[in-house]
């Protein structure tokens, strides 16, 4: 059975028809306005209706950034779109021309599920996805099932506390993991290094046109790939925080696999090796237990579409 | 169906027949020697054989402190008994006179399962057990299923890291949660306070016969119940660490209930209120999500027997 | 001998004639522009010239926020005024009509010196001043001498690191003491509490007109004085960080007295008692050594004038 | 003027005649018993009397591990010898045959003073000594004067707190600097690595005869000099903690020089370069201030004798 997956961003939506092997057969996009939730409903439905002209689908899955109700019908709260206890599935179902189940999933869960079913985790039964982007998102798969939690808000890994009294987080707490293990943390530290020690940061500054505040993640990756010591150190620090936190997650859930997604994956082994090293160094009972693998995600931006579609047909 | 549960300690075993409502119908004990694994097999079987004289049982569950294989047949490693990749279920099955399934479970998982099925968690679907004793153990129930992990070693909550560069743990790492949230931590801090500030610790010292090194957990509880400020502060600190760590666990798993077990539960609300306060203060997205309940365990020492028996018949 | 003390702020200067007992006999003010350093020179000189019409003085001391050269002639760097290796003493000396020595001192050092000579430290020989304001400044007196350091930048206590991986500081580092022990930290935590737990912060929010972002330090003090539990807790947390850091300073310098200055002093014992408690709890070798006193500053805003004048005549 | 310096250890004393350039002209040793303080007095006097047969001296300085009164007459408390408010100078003065001043100094202060006067700090005016041995000791020189503190117990650098909730220290507190920046910390971490990751620690284990618990500091240095990655990492970690803590000390005292003493100095640049790197990375206002030098001590075990003698004649 084919299904439609919808990845709903703040200003645009991407909609695709996904087959049972996780391939996207067709895809359309729509622009949206974050403040106008009814227009988002319409844009989603419109895109679905366009695709169902040519494709037969059995379900529609909507991937939304926010807290999704455990019955997969509503978005309870979203940081970037004006949804508050919003019955998104029902609203979209009313506007689409086909009569198929419509379900909502958290976008990080959807992306993680795509990796689990069709990507780096396809051979695994117990997997943790860590999406290292602006923040640190995740998904948890236990015994082949996605863990949504009692109220649908599980896998908020970025808000596990890793440093008491640590960096303030946008969530209002201190020391959240995503303040140390995210692309934003990488860029923050890179800019800081460039200001405090410009000589060491010469290479990074050149790539950024001379301005510390213009340094972005890809500059760090590029400099690291050229062997720049500061950039390598920045990636190693990021990797260390990812790996050390992963070891705490493993103490709780004993997964067989961690999948690292997000833009920083472009750094490849320059990131992955420090992650693995820190994971091993911190893993409780190392030597008395098998160790989880740590791999890069295989899907990119389309993971949300694929995962939402696949979850919808289950 | 009745089942037998066996709680295997370092120097003794407790064995009981458990009915489907979690009641123990009969119970026997045996002394054992930690170094002699064959004698432990025999003691277990002997106790089971005694009980099956008068009770019909359909399964036997063995609760062992250690890493249990995910197929529930073997103990991979145990800290206090000389089991190394030891096929405990098979060895015991050969020695018992009834022909029923024999399974091994981690003891903290068994105790947590007893709470989930017949105790504080009986109405829950998603529960975390935190057993605050010498160390900090736990059990994880997701969507009514016990989470054992890929290799059987999930729920080692005590070894999640909560302080980078923090207290050394017996496990060889720094900053493990159990170094802050355990009876041992409580006693360590109480003794330290008594040495550094004997005037503040006068009440505690009196209860302990004047010797700081003799202060034990129940002294702290007793002093706190009598209103002693230092003892109250020690319990509040313990509670804070439990609650703050629980908030990190909740970020990952979104449970509906935490159950706090172990001897410190004797302190009741003097412990529980600080736990809840810290949990709320640290919980990510407070106000946008329901909050998990935090309650004391209802079962005491017999939880291992009850949980092992119940898991064996599943 | 009387001396003039000048307290140079970003937008105004306060100038006073100070007698040998630390009293201000006359005082004038001038508005200034932070970007125009020559105009600041002229404003200082103009005020001095006005005062020397009626008062005979033997020295002029200039208190400046910034790094002052150890020979007390120049400001090497200032955060708020455009001084860079600026020969401030010479420039002012050229413009004043009396022929007396002109020296520059760091403003926190000047304020600390005023406390040492004429305030809470007048009976002490070894004193640490901690000025808990927007940031955390200080002054160090060892054996009756102000410690300026090799290059004039000693006593930057606010930038001692107290939490590895802690809050980012404006200085570019993590975990600086002033991120935990300053009025800014108090307000930050109060606002955060008001957002995360509005019910607990009801009293604070009322005082601030209902808006978390309007909460200021005096609101916390006022609420605490009325017995509000959250406000008391916020002051206790601030006090704990001050006291714990002071214990580290004491390990290094073994002073007989800490003097706490800055606006938070308005909270009196509500701040001071937690400071002392934390200091005792953290002090190394408590019981084998006398303990430093911890007292509030006696001088207010005029401490800079008094201290600069007195340092100038030495 | 020549002077005698006495270095009083737990089980032996070393006594030397020191000339004005810091050279030891003659030296004798005596065995002692830590429990019998009178016998220590006699052993000191006996050794002094032997040396004064052939050398004319003007003063005697006694270097003692412990808290020394600020008037340099008594040991208030010592961890390893049974001195409690013990008038050591007077007792020794009564037993020596020459009539010269006898003074007591803290041993770390004496060693630091030797470096300041005749060693790595001979050209400096403001110096911090950090002695990285079993613990972390130190000495503080401000403007050419030794800082003893109000009650004689300054420069206990090892008990500045660097990690809240960090490793327990023998002093009873958590997170003391010496738990991270000492030879003991190096060995602890090396042994731990050897237990947790024996493959990585193969080289270290070989040097220690195969037993993790036999790993000692010199093994780490030797392995590092042979290029062993784990040993290099262990030294880098030690160096990082030294350097980061030194930056906090510099924020307070702005010294021109740090001198690193103790056995770990044998590692040379393998330790020193990480110290300097971490110092720079953590130093507040880097770029707006000169940076202190960080050098190895030049004196070895005899620094206590030399420093005590020189302090006695001042």
TrEMBL record, chains A, B, C, D:
Which GO BP terms apply? Answer: glycolytic process
Q: Which UniProt keywords apply?
A: ATP-binding, Kinase, Nucleotide-binding, Transferase
Pfam families per record: ROK (PF00480)
The record's Gene Ontology cellular component field reads: cytoplasm
Q: What EC number(s) is this enzyme filed under?
A: 2.7.1.2
Uppermost EC category? transferase
Q: Give the stretches traversing the membrane.
A: none
Homology family? Belongs to the ROK (NagC/XylR) family.
The record ties this protein, via PANTHER family, to: GLUCOKINASE, ROK (REPRESSOR, ORF, KINASE) FAMILY
What is the protein name given in its UniProt record?
Answer: Glucokinase
């Amino acid at each position: 059975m084919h299904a439609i997956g919808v990845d709903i961003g703040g200003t645009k939506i991407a909609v695709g028809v996904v087959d049972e092997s996780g391939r996207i057969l067709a895809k359309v996009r729509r622009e949206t306005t974050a403040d106008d939730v009814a227009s988002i409903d319409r844009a989603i439905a419109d895109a679905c209706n366009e695709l169902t002209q040519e494709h037969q689908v059995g379900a529609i899955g909507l991937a939304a950034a926010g807290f999704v109700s455990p019955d997969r019908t509503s978005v309870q709260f979203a940081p970037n779109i004006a949804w508050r206890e919003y019955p998104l599935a029902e609203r979209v179902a009313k506007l689409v021309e086909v009569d198929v189940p419509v379900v909502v999933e958290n976008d990080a869960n959807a992306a993680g599920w795509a990796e689990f079913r069709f990507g780096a985790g396809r051979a695994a039964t117990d997997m943790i996805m860590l999406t290292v982007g602006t923040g640190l998102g995740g998904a948890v798969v236990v015994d082949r099932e996605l863990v949504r939690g009692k109220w649908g808000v599980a896998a908020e890994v970025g808000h596990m506390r890793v440093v008491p009294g640590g960096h303030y987080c946008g969530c209002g707490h201190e020391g959240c993991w995503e303040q140390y293990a995210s692309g934003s943390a990488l860029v923050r530290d890179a800019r800081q290094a460039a200001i405090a020690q410009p000589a060491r940061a010469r290479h990074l500054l050149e790539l950024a046109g001379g301005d510390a505040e213009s340094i972005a993640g890809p500059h760090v990756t590029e400099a690291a790939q050229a062997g720049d010591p500061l950039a390598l150190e920045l990636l190693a620090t990021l990797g260390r925080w990812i790996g050390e936190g992963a070891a705490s997650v493993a103490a709780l859930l004993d997964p067989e696999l961690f999948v690292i997604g997000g833009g920083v994956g472009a750094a490849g082994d320059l990131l992955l090796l420090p992650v693995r090293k820190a994971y091993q160094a911190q893993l409780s009972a190392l030597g008395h237990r098998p160790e989880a693998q740590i791999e890069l995600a295989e899907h990119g931006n389309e993971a949300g579409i694929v995962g939402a579609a696949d979850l919808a047909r289950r």
